[in-house]
Amino acid sequence: MGASRSREPSIHQLRLFLTLNEELHFGRAAARLFITQPALSQQIRELEKRLGVGVVERSGRTLRLTEAGQALLPEARAAIGAVDRLRRVADAQVRQASGRLVVGTMGAEASMKHTRSVLGLLRDRHPGMSVQLVNLGFGDHLAALAQQEADVVFLRPPVTDDIEVHHLATEPRVACVAADHPLAALPALTLAHFSGVPVVDMPRQVPRLWWDFWAVDPRPDGSRVRYGPVVTDMESLLHTVAAGEAMCFLPAAAREYFARPGVTYVDVADLAPSTSALAWLRARRNEATVRAVRHAAREAMTRDVTDPQTLPA
After folding, report:
1. Which one of 17, 183, 200, 220 is least enclosed by Cβ atoms within 10 Å?
2. Distance between CA 308 and CA 286 in Å, rounded?
3. What is the three-state SS of 193-204?
4. How far apart are CA 70 and CA 156, in angstroms?
5. Which residues are in the HTH lysR-type domain (predicted)?
6. How far from chain centre, in Å, is Cα 212?
7. Residue ranges in the chain modelled with pLDDT below 50
8. Are 172 and 273 in contact (CB under 8 A)?
């Protein structure tokens, strides 16, 4: 195949190339992409023509990347990643220009008094602003900020260094265990009682500093936590706990919002409390919509300063 190339590869072709690499089968890749197999083959041939090198080798039913294809793979990923980031930043700018705010919430944060207070005041102060609420899981509540898929998020710290927070409230944490777990029957518990008891784990994309806090890892005596199954959302977490496969620590509000058969919540005397916070990307703090919700949070907390559950800013 000649070394010259007349045109640059398209992002669409690079996406097809990455999917084909994951499947290593034209039929499966085409089905996953919702296109026909001949159309996929044609696009890959066009990609090779534009690049000037072959990227896949076909031998009967066997498919593999060529040496050139392997070398180009990380560059294709980087190119697509850059375009995706460009699109997310552009979308965030469109939202800012149109006065549209995407608010992420995690767990039961959307139902909390402080969240409703902030959003209510925001609507009063900015009646023309469009506010969209999206529910986020464990794996994406911080990533939604970093990737600018949400402008602000109501969450439970800690957070990474690129994120700023305004603390809204504090409350105790409790242990969530299977209803028939031996610890559920004890009158008073400390963290030492949970030594060796497996804790649910989080997906790899969740920052460990966040889950280390919630898992209390390491424990006060320096021992490390033993982890159980990975969970992705509250329902899978509660199912895993009810099955007796692992336990976890949650905000005390879980007693009200996440009561489930087979699960019980117990107090732990030496377990540090948790805080609720409004979070935003540090680099976006002065954007008009983000600034508006930050000011609403500050004003809402000033109004509620007499509430013992509220932390001053």
Report:
1. 220
2. 30
3. HHCCCCEEECCC
4. 41
5. 9-66
6. 16
7. 1-5, 305-313
8. yes
pLDDT tens-place string over residues 27-77: 888 888 888 888 888 989 888 888 889 999 887 667 889 998 889 888 888
How many angstroms separate the Cα of 40 from the Cα of each of 27, 37, 53, 84, 85? Answer: 9, 5, 17, 22, 25
Per-residue model confidence (pLDDT) at position 37: 87
- C-beta of residue 313 within 8 angstroms of C-beta of residue 307: no
**pLDDT at res. 313:** 34
137-153: pLDDT as tens digits? 888 888 899 888 899 99
211 token code pair: 């889950």
pLDDT of residue 84: 73
The residue behind tokens 């703090």 is: 285
What token pair was written down for 90?
A: 């552009």
DSSP-derived pairing of the beta strands 62-65 and 152-155: unpaired
The amino acid at residue 100 is: R
Give the helix ranges, DSSP H, for the chain: 11-23, 26-33, 37-51, 67-98, 113-125, 143-146, 208-215, 234-242, 254-257, 288-303
Query: In this predicted structure, what is the pLDDT of residue 178?
Result: 97
Helices (H), 99-191: 113-125, 143-146
Output the CA torsion 188→192→196→200 (10° steps): 70
Residue written as token pair 């927070």: 165
Give the C-alpha separation, 310 to 300, whole Å: 10
**DSSP-derived pairing of the beta strands 152-155 and 227-230:** unpaired
Note the pLDDT of residue 92: 65
- What's the rounded Cα separation, in Å, for the pair 170 and 179? 26
| Type of residue found at 176 | C
| Spatial distance between the Cα atoms of 251 and 269, rounded to a whole number of angstroms | 14
What are φ and ψ of residue 33, in 5° steps?
-90, -5
pTM: 0.69
Q: Note whether 80 and 11 are within 8 A (CB).
A: yes
